[in-house]
């Protein structure tokens, strides 16, 4: 089986991830931040090591500003619900994943004003358009770094600069870019960065994080409860990351993520080069197949490691199922981002998405392209 669904979750994981998860269960076992015995202290250290590694990766000088979540969705919800209040204005785009779009729609019903800036048809976001929308009185600019359907990379720097000039905060959804693209939260002035641990970072499912920058003066948690700290107080502690980390942490997941981050620290350049190369091969190969329409930026343009396409008028889930029969694991349908499909004109039949990972070989890509080509000959007139 050729696995080309890394945009959903990366597979396989580096073997060290499995070893670290097993060791966390077998040899540490205890609850981090709860109890003073040696195993609990070791668990706390393992969590801190991972926090420091995440901070290092994203250019954050204070690791305690990284709060662990169970995925990117939880991180995005925490950021949006944590900083937006009725009467606030938020500027976003019309290509957001439902992880961003659904909480925004819910917040709109509570009196938050949601201003949606249209992205370009290929998924790029025109900074000028964003600048015009931001204006005075915007509390938050919330957008994806790359659409999970269109793949175009968004140029964050000018948007963040305009947001800050207007006194707004910036939330970036890096679900499709972190690990594949360098991101420096302090250099780019990103106030809130939400990311999964289980996609480009190569960690296990059940991991993710939210970075909360120093400009965010107050953030309300999504959940309240035990933090292992200040237990005598009725209120949730103000201090990060405790404020956002209620309940027992996912120690095996976090230990696995740590190992994945060590892997990336060692092999990151090769990983990024390989994913870029495989993505380019997919774009070239697919664009040569009659009946295939590629979504997103043109060949050679900057795109995240995913390529979505349609095959004539065929339903994308049927195409994905037929590719599965031919040994290619990929995703069809609406990819939790109906707005991006509306933009691409594929809301009716969705799109098929091929997304390589660091362990995808050139032969895997060839296999996938041959399978799409064979299917195109079969189903198209
Ligand atoms: C752009 C984008 N944002 C958010 C998410 C949600 O990520 P998670 O599944 O980790 O919650 C995804 C997942 O596909 C995504 O592609």
CATH architecture of the largest domain: 3-Layer(aba) Sandwich
Whole-number total of structural domains:
2
N-to-C order of helices and strands: EHHEHEHEHEHEHEEHEEHEHEH
Shape, per Cα inertia axes: globular
Q: Any idea what the CATH superfamily of the largest domain is called? A: Type I PLP-dependent aspartate aminotransferase-like (Major domain)
Percent of residues in helices comes to 40-55%
The level-1 CATH class of the largest domain: Alpha Beta
Rg on CA atoms, Å? 21 Å
Structural class: alpha/beta
The CATH topology label of the largest domain is Aspartate Aminotransferase, domain 2
Name the hetero compounds present: pyridoxal-5'-phosphate
The portion of residues forming beta strands comes to 5-15%
Give a verbal description of the structure:
This protein folds into two domains: 2-9 and 268-379, Aspartate Aminotransferase, domain 1; 15-261, Aspartate Aminotransferase, domain 2, CATH 3.40.640.10. The protein has a seven-stranded mixed beta sheet with strand order 2-8-7-6-5-3-4, sandwiched between helices. A three-stranded antiparallel beta sheet has the order 9-10-12. It has eleven helices and twelve strands. The chain is globular and about 70 Å long. With 381 residues, the chain is α/β, with parallel strands linked by helices. The chain starts with a strand and ends with a helix. The structure holds pyridoxal-5'-phosphate. Residues 8, 71-73, 97, 99, 144, 148, 173, 175-176, 196, 208 line the site of pyridoxal-5'-phosphate.
Task: Provide a short characterization of the protein structure.
This protein has 381 residues and is an alpha/beta fold. It folds into 2 domains: 120 residues, Aspartate Aminotransferase, domain 1 (Alpha-Beta Complex), CATH 3.90.1150; 247 residues, Type I PLP-dependent aspartate aminotransferase-like (Major domain) (Aspartate Aminotransferase, domain 2, 3-Layer(aba) Sandwich), CATH 3.40.640.10. Helix content is 40%, strand content 13%.
